[in-house]
Structures are given as structure tokens and as C-alpha cells.
Amino acid sequence: MTAPVVIDQRSTAYSPERAYWLALASELAYQDEATIERQAREWGFDQVRHHETRFTPPFPLQDTQAYTMAGDDMIVTAFRGTEPQQIKDWLTDATTPPSPGPGGTGYVHHGFAQALESIFPDVRAALGELRGNNQSVWFTGHSLGGALAMLAGARMHLEAPKLTADGVYTYGQPRTCDRILATAYNKGFGRRMYRFVNNNDIVPQLPPEPVFAHVDALRHIDSHGKIRESMTLMGGLADRAAGLTADALAPATDGIRDHAMRSYLSALEKNLP
Fold first, then answer.
1. DSSP letter at 226?
2. CA–CA distance, 21 with 26 (Å, rounded to integer)
3. How far is CA 191 from CA 81, 94, 161, 186, 263, in A?
4. What's the gap between Cα 221 and its chain centre?
5. Has 99 been annotated as catalytic?
6. DSSP characters for 76-95?
7. pLDDT in tens, the chain (273 residues)
8. What is the CA radius of gyration of the chain?
9. What gap in Å lies between CA 114 and CA 136, rounded to an integer?
10. What is the spatial distance between Cα 128 and Cα 163, in angstroms, rounded to a whole number?
11. Catalytic residue of the set 63, 73, 93, 143
12. I need a surface site. Which of 53, 79, 161, 248 has the fewest CB within 10 A?
């Protein structure tokens, strides 16, 4: 059963409540426009903008979707994710070279860069339109949506500093960029980025190192559902080993079950006061 949600739009500090609510906002990105607008109003956000664009293969995703909701003190952009089997080819494709990163800093996964580029101008325009009360700005997303949220944060910070996000929360985010961009991101975002990984979720373990790297601020959810600020040494070794698995996204495994958005919500709910 979903826990009651009370949103403090004025707070910018990390809390389990904010992590849980932004996970709900990430889940909402999978819904239709009417459902998104109705829920946004119930949460106290009276303006909503929908973002959807289409682009062509080689990547097996035909569109990119997100929504932006604005309240008196807070604006949230949530990017929609995709199913593990759909994202599989993106994460394991080693034939396409990475794309230059935001502001010429480092490199990013080509598929993620193309997906974000297809929607980023609309997102940036919506933020410019809706941020009339100096509201805080937040990006969030699950799976592919987490990668796009992280990259959107990087682009805003490096290309439009006045729109730098106050917080980025991702859930089941794959590795998205190289170490150069990750280092610049860590420096710019400090305690404003939180990357949640649920137990044995396989998606954050791909694409493999060393070409791709994660940003910092890991929040690891252990097998008991407890949020921890780091992984154990053995957990880190397992993370590297899993990235080399021949078919890491095979169905009916802990890696797939732990990646589900509902699994994240169930775990995060256990950490609420």
C-alpha cells in the first residue's frame, strides 16, 4: 500500500521522504497525460508541461517522454524510463563511439545523448517559462529516465548555469558517461545528486567499466530494504563482475526484479519515519 505523501516544496535537503516522493514522481512518468496532470494537482503542482519526441534507430526506442510540473516553490521534471529488455541493446552496444559531453566535457553514451537531445530544448524552454518565482528545480527518473535526468542536470549546469538543478534523484540508473564528465558532475553537484540502486539491480552495472562510469552519491538499498550510503568491498567487486556477464539481463532474475520501479518504491517506503 502506498504511503501518504506530504511534499515540502520549500525544503532542499536530502530526506527519505523526498527520495520516496521523487520515486513516485518517476513512476508517474510512465502514465498517460491525464493521469500525470491529475496527480500533479493533488500534489500541489498546478502547471504541467508534457515533453515527447520521436527519433529513429539504430537504437530500439522510438520516443523520449518526460513531464515538468510546477508549484509555487518547486519545479520537477521527471523522465520516463523503459523496460530492461528494451534498454538491453543500448547498454551492451560497443560498436557506437561515445558522444562528446555537455559543454565539451568528457563523453556520454551515444544513445543517451541522442535521446536527451531529442527532448532537451523543450524541457529547457519549459523551465524558463515556469520558473517565475525562483522555484527550486529537480530532475528525476528511473532506468533510462535516470540516465536522462543525470544528463539533463549536467547540461543545465555546464550550458545554462542559471538553471542548475537544486537536486537530481535517480533510480536504477545505468552508467551514463566517462570519468571526466563524472568528476565534473560530482564537483558541481556535491550533495545535490542521489543515485539509488536497489539490491542486485542489474541495470546500474551496465554498460561495463572502464569506458563508462557512475557519478557519486550512491544510495544502496540492501537486501533488507535499508538505505546505505556506500557499497561493501564485496558489493563493489560484484558490481564489476556483473558488468561482464554474457547475458546479464536474462529474465526471472534478482537483477530484473530489483530493477522494477515498484521494487524501489517498496524498499524506500520501509525507510520512511
1. -
2. 9
3. 24, 32, 17, 9, 25
4. 16
5. no
6. EEEE----HHHHHHHHH--S
7. 455 567 888 888 899 999 999 999 999 999 999 999 999 999 999 999 999 987 655 555 557 899 999 999 999 999 999 876 666 666 666 567 889 999 899 999 988 888 898 899 999 999 999 998 899 999 999 999 999 999 999 999 888 777 789 999 999 999 999 999 999 999 988 889 999 999 999 889 888 888 899 998 899 999 888 999 866 555 544 544 443 444 455 545 677 889 999 999 999 999 998
8. 17
9. 27
10. 8
11. 143
12. 161
Q: Given 26, 178, 201, 239, which residue is catalytic? A: 201
Residue carrying the nine cell digits 520501479: 261
| Cell numbers found for residue 141 | 527518473
Residue 201 is among the residues annotated as catalytic for this protein: yes
What number of residues does the chain have?
273
Written as nine digits, the cell of 228 is 546505505
